Amino acid sequence: MKRIQRYPLLFLDILKHLGCNLTRNRVYKRMRRTLPIVLFGLVVMGLSTSGASFGELSVSPPVLSEPAPTVPREITRSINGNNPITTMEKKWELDYETYFGRNLTDSELQAPDIAKILTQISQKTQTKPAVLWVVPEPEGLVLALVTPGKEPLGLIQPNVITENLKAEVINLYQEITNPRKLQSRSYLEPAQRLYNQIIKPIEAQLEAENIDTILFCLGQGLRTLPLAVLQDGERFLIEKYALTRIPAFNLMNLNYETVKNAAVLAMGASEFKNQNPLPAVPFELSTIVNSDGMNGNITLPITNLENSPQWEGQSFLNQGFTVDNLKRLLSLSPYRIVHLATHAEFKPGKPGNSYIQFWNEQLKLDQMGQFNWKNPPIELLVLSACKTAVGDKDAELGFAGLAFQSGVKTALASLWYVSDTGTLALMSEFYQQLKTTSTKAQALQQTQIQMLKGDVRLQQGELLLSRGEISLPPEIASEGTDNLSHPYYWGAFTLIGSPW
Question: Which residues form the CHAT domain (predicted)?
Answer without folding.
Answer: 189-498
